[in-house]
């Protein structure tokens, strides 16, 4: 969760809540509803640090919506599921939290999926010339001479 306290102080508070079974704590509720689940405080780490309150509120809500958590609330601000996914992806939190979550688990590597093949030579498409019947005719019904003939030249009278 989001806090303005030093990280170690907040971890101690979480541990104390578990020992005292403080019902307001999401961690305590999770442990009670999921017997056998424990929290690894020794390997806990910060996922984001900022002095901008709105930034941390948005990021916290996005993480709650997108990543596995035991948070009781949805966060202080509403962030829709699509935007949450984008925020977590841009902040590169999904990969960091997965790596941390999988640190102690032995999982088979994911299948290799090659990138799509791109042709080395892109064919150049040239437009084919238009069919003669598809072009409108620019000729009139009577041929016009290219150069005026001497008979058709107007004469000047002096």
From TrEMBL:
This is Tick transposon. It comes from the Eukaryota. The lineage of its organism: Eukaryota, Metazoa, Ecdysozoa, Arthropoda, Crustacea. Residues 97-158 are annotated as: Disordered. Residues 134-158 have a biased composition (Low complexity).
